[in-house]
Amino acid sequence: MLTVETDIVAAGWPAGTDWEAVARAAVAAAVAETPHADLDAAPMSVEVAVRLTNDAEVHELNRQYRGKDKPTNILSFPMLSADMLVQLANSDDGEVLLGDLVLAAETVLVEAAAKGWTPGQYVAHLVVHGTLHLLGYDHEDNEAAAEHMEALERAACARLHLPDPYADPDEG
């Protein structure tokens, strides 16, 4: 069973959005588009932790763990390697932490506005993106991997009734 723990630890996240529901739906949609879809029905709890914080904290984490001295919209911290993910079906552990997702309010809000998306829509897309990273997908290694990950994101976003996150806004 998928479990999503969402913590809002900084000001700046707009009121009126059920951030826990957004995160839960986005994680489930991302997982459903992968060969790991069965994790949603796993006998153990498969947990994703979502931390909604600010640019300052994400900046520090980005510098510390990625060597990039700037904030970013989301950071993903997988707790399992790809081979461990495959073995989860045989696990008798009561709880497995898939990983952590950390989002920066200021960056997320600016980028959402630039795309013409609501903050909730944009966070949902970012959580889909981050969850795919937790499942071992990457877009930086090669073009084929990037295209595959983008296709999974598009499908998960469609499942959530979100716009295509990679559509060219000038086309249409």
Give your account of this protein's structure:
- The chain has 172 residues and is α/β, with parallel strands linked by helices.
- The chain has a single domain, classed as Collagenase (Catalytic Domain) (3-Layer(aba) Sandwich).
- The chain is built from 6 helices and 4 strands; from the N terminus they run βαβαβαβααα.
- It has a 4-stranded mixed β-sheet, sandwiched between helices.
- α1 links the parallel β1 and β2.
- α1 packs across α5.
List keywords for this structure.
alpha/beta, Collagenase (Catalytic Domain)
Using the coordinates above, name the CATH class: Alpha Beta
Tell me the span between the first and last alpha carbons. 40 Å
Q: Which range best describes the helical content: under 10%, 10-25%, 25-40%, 40-55%, 55-70% or over 70%?
A: 40-55%
Q: Considering the protein shown, what is the CATH homologous superfamily?
A: Metalloproteases ("zincins"), catalytic domain
Count helical runs.
6
Largest sheet features:
4 strands, mixed
Shape, per Cα inertia axes: globular
* Strand runs, count: 4
Strand order of the largest sheet: 1-2-4-3
Radius of gyration: 16 Å
Low-confidence stretches: none
- The portion of residues forming beta strands comes to 15-25%
| SS content category | alpha/beta
Going by CATH, the architecture would be: 3-Layer(aba) Sandwich
Number of domains: 1
Q: How do the helices and strands follow one another from N- to C-terminus? A: EHEHEHEHHH
Instruction: Round the mean pLDDT to the nearest integer and report it.
Output: 92
Query: How is the CATH topology named?
Result: Collagenase (Catalytic Domain)
